[in-house]
Write a structure and sequence with these properties.
This protein is of the alpha/beta class. It is built from eight helices and 15 strands.
């Protein structure tokens, strides 16, 4: 087994990677990101294979990443996520039957899709969970670009599922929402003790040139049961939030209300915000005032100790949470 594990994410703005050591106390060995030229990729979809491969090669060199095998995180508006129930049969038979069970739900024929099913509960002979379906062409494009950079794809994971593992670490045994505000896409998960209950992908560009560094944010004490988070405090008042920020927080609030209205839904006890856009002026104040639950921020430094060098700084540390999430639990 390799001594480290690498998570990789490709979005419209950049390629980003995190390398963790394996063992009982995994440490952040290396991390970095390299910007992509316009039009090279669009949130997990490679449009220019050569440009992405070159950026990946540059990233490995600049960040000092040693591992040549990666887990790739994906999330975009073309990925279907919905609740699904299937007969409780052997896992291998369930996987074999899945394309036939869900063919009427897919936007493409089953042979053109990559399917995953996350089982959550079982009752009355049925397994209930979340179905994730991605277009095969998207996944093949990612793998092809990485192959050109001489990087092997060990697995592909859905980014919100990685955020559910972050939720397990920051708030075990609780039902919480984790919202990763990215350059052009926001990933949203509600998880109960780390088990995904509801996922949503929100395509929205916040204009991150206006975002501020999280290191400039004031920090309040947090409850002892949340040692990996910081209570959200924003020096900028809520009325300074840009229209796109207000739109995003409105969608987050609506999603939380939708979840709360579902039969048997557990109340969300906290909302954890992260990602490159979490420092946008007024965002934290607006979220704290309107989402109806305590709001915290979390970054990669609170999730993994620095193994060498200095810890990643503010906004970059927040942007790495999605990349780290896809390998949490895989480092042992």
């Amino acid at each position: 087994m390799a001594r480290t594990i690498v998570g990789l994410e490709i979005n419209e703005a950049c390629v980003r990677a995190v390398e963790l050591s394996r063992g009982k106390r995994p440490a952040l060995i290396a991390a970095g990101e390299v910007p992509l030229p316009p039009g090279a990729a669009k949130d997990s979809e490679v449009l220019d294979t050569d440009a992405v491969a070159m950026a990946v090669t540059q990233l490995w060199s600049q960040a000092g990443i040693k591992g040549k095998e990666v887990v790739v995180g994906v999330a975009n508006r073309r990925i279907l996520v919905r609740e699904h129930s299937t007969p409780a049969i052997r896992p291998d038979l369930m996987r074999a039957a899945l394309p036939f069970d869900v063919q009427d739900l897919l936007p493409v024929p089953p042979e053109q899709a990559v399917l995953d099913f996350y089982p959550i509960a079982e009752s009355e002979g049925q397994v209930h969970g979340l179905l994730v379906a991605a277009v095969s062409e998207t996944i093949e494009g990612l793998i092809s670009a990485l192959n050109r950079a001489r990087i092997r794809t060990a697995a592909v994971d859905f980014i919100p599922f990685g955020l559910a593992r972050v939720a397990k670490l920051v708030a075990p045994e609780q039902t919480v929402a984790v919202v990763a505000i990215g350059e052009h896409t926001t990933n949203f998960i509600i998880a109960q003790d780390g088990i995904p209950r509801f996922a949503r992908i929100i395509p929205l560009d916040l204009g991150l040139d206006a975002a501020v560094d999280l290191t400039e944010q004031p920090v309040e004490a947090v409850p002892e049961q949340l040692p990996h988070a910081r209570r959200a405090v924003d020096a900028a008042p809520a009325d300074t939030a840009a229209p796109a920020v207000a739109d995003l927080i409105g969608r987050v609030r609506t999603t939380l209300s939708f979840h709360a209205s579902r039969p048997g839904a557990s109340p969300v006890s906290a909302v954890f915000l992260t990602g490159a856009g979490v420092g946008a002026p007024g965002l934290l104040q607006l979220a704290s005032a309107t989402v109806g639950a305590p709001v915290f921020t979390v970054d990669v430094n609170s999730l993994a100790a620095a193994g060498r060098g200095t810890p990643p700084p503010g906004r970059f540390a927040a942007s790495l949470v999605t990349t780290l999430g896809i390998i949490l639990g895989e480092e042992r």
